[in-house]
Amino acid sequence: MKLVLSLWVLLLMPWTISLAGEDDWQRQSYKQSKRLPDLHHAVDVKLLEAMMPPEDFVLKTGRLLQCKTCHGLEKMDEIPYDKVNKDAPDFLRGGPYPDFEAFCYQCHNKKDNERPNIHVMLEKNGEIKKQNCLYCHEEVNEQREKPRKPADLKLRLPIENVCLGCHLKTPHLNAPEHQEAKPKDEMKKHMKVEAEKHGITLPLSNAGKVMCVSCHSPHPDGVIDGKKNPAGRQVLGDVEKGVEYVKHSWDQVYQADKQERLTLLEQTTRERVELPYKRIKSEVLLRLPAKNGQLCLSCHEFDR
Ligand code: HEC
Ligand code: HEC
Ligand code: HEC
Ligand code: HEC
Ligand code: HEC
Ligand code: HEC
Domain-by-domain residue ranges, the chain? Predict the structure, then answer.
């Protein structure tokens, strides 16, 4: 757990904090100053037995980490820090890495360092994992079947922010359109009818805007009994497996249609972009299924 935390703290922190006045060393090389950038990874530590980085991650005698192990630039230790080209593809060996963690996982074990899935809130015997509740709530809401007013949720952050930090603001297609989206009165009326019809809730933020939990329920099925409390009524999925997709024959047509634009995007970003068409097989943490359109139609009405 310690490594899990420290790894995340390290990833979340900015890499450099400039200290006014005593920053001369930033214009020197490592060889001159023997100082590493603030919050930098340790060097001269021994590679653990279990770590198996690619062969070009060259080690120093005694299997110690050196600059060359992680950086592909020539004589990294002799370049003044303000002259280091951080945009060079090989600045981090094997780079550039669109997914920064992928670099770390070449030595550190992915499984041990992965973020725990806090949405897995139930023990095998059906009891709740109380410690998980406290990621978002200030206290464990014991009376789970009793519908609550927003003020009684005791959330650690305003409800529209509680998912951020762990998830991006734009986690998927369709999310950007709903950032700051504010249902008009007509939509609100429709939402009320739909929520009652399906026995669900469609909460909006204090400012009346759509938020993550308008569409998603944060808890898996079983934490709140959906028959007694509409906040618990949702699609029945497996949180451990997450959303599952299956291949679909439309993919070929879809890919062909996007080929030209994707190639252009890849040339400018120098990252491989994959955008396959897949069908949703099983959904999870949603108030209503989206694959048959029910969720969307609980707010939107389309002319027929
Ligand atoms: C275990 C791998 C590893 C080793 C060993 C290593 N580095 Fe780094 N270094 C990194 C990572 C990761 C970053 C951050 C890259 C980023 O933020 O994109 C970094 C960033 C840097 C930066 C840029 C900091 C900034 O301004 O953002 C410098 C300079 C640097 N390293 C120098 C060195 C020197 C000199 C050595 C040898 C004494 C060394 N590194 C050894 C992994 C390593
Ligand atoms: C070339 C292999 C290598 C790479 C790549 C690498 N590490 Fe490490 N890391 C090590 C070694 C070796 C140690 C020291 C052994 C130990 O204590 O686990 C270490 C130690 C650490 C520690 C301290 C562990 C503790 O218990 O205090 C953290 C945190 C860490 N690494 C984070 C990262 C992050 C974040 C990245 C990616 C930016 C990264 N490492 C990339 C080899 C690597
Ligand atoms: C990822 C953040 C998160 C975690 C973790 C979490 N909750 Fe919640 N909880 C929320 C949010 C957001 C709401 C308000 C939206 C809703 O009702 O779905 C809420 C609402 C509730 C409600 C009131 C439902 C209503 O509106 O009547 C209960 C009861 C509750 N949570 C219990 C729990 C329990 C018990 C746990 C731990 C097993 C837990 N929560 C873990 C975010 C979380
Ligand atoms: C308009 C409704 C809507 C809003 C708003 C919304 N989502 Fe989603 N989200 C969906 C649908 C639909 C899926 C597709 C997966 C499914 O059917 O279960 C999904 C999937 C996800 C997934 C899984 C992605 C994957 O491919 O595995 C995550 C994570 C997620 N949403 C987080 C968020 C977060 C965080 C926010 C708020 C910033 C948010 N969503 C806002 C409807 C929404
Ligand atoms: C403490 C961190 C944390 C918080 C807070 C959090 N999540 Fe998650 N969430 C995760 C992790 C970890 C997973 C597992 C999948 C992964 O690693 O991305 C996950 C998975 C999901 C998924 C399913 C994606 C899939 O396919 O597995 C959805 C949907 C989701 N979160 C929505 C939310 C919403 C909505 C909120 C706010 C109420 C929220 N999360 C708050 C960490 C968090
Ligand atoms: C909680 C209510 C809610 C749900 C559920 C919802 N939407 Fe929306 N959506 C809105 C609001 C509000 C807007 C802002 C524009 C408006 O008022 O029509 C919007 C805008 C959009 C837009 C942009 C339209 C434009 O004119 O700019 C698209 C596309 C869209 N939604 C698709 C979807 C899809 C697809 C789903 C189902 C996965 C969905 N929505 C579910 C409330 C919702």
Answer: 2-113, 244-282
